[in-house]
Amino acid sequence: xxxxxxxxxxxxxxxxxxxxxxxxxxxxxxxxxxxxxxxxxxxxxxxxxxxxxxxxxxxxxxxxxxxxxxxxxxxxxxxxxxxxxxxxxxxxxxxxxxxxxxxxxxxxxxxxxxxxxxxxxxxxxxxxxxxxxxxxxxxxxxxxxxxxxxxxxxxxxxxx
Length: 160
Hints:
7 strands; 30% helix
């Protein structure tokens, strides 16, 4: 498996992965996290332009996509019902999705991110039990609740 920056020619496949993820979330009890349109293609294009969009290739095929950057995330400035494990510079993982036929792809993405920065933060919807399990399986600890710009709560995780 190989992680690399997302390229413009990857956009169609990446958007397919997100569409599959939205359908999967609806089938598994999480219909509200990404609803019918998140992430928007314009957001993924911006990730590519900013150099923070990544894909995981498996046997020459894109098996996962995610956003990763090192730097402050405004939605992580305030945390309720808990606290961060450690302050200081941190990496952020958002919008991680993996092809349903690829085993362990999301874990590989998280492992790669931790190799880039040994202080990671991530969040997920309270109904996304599968992502909560994947995060905890990969050494992330539940730290509290953060709120997105639109006011929606998310469970905050950190791995140090």
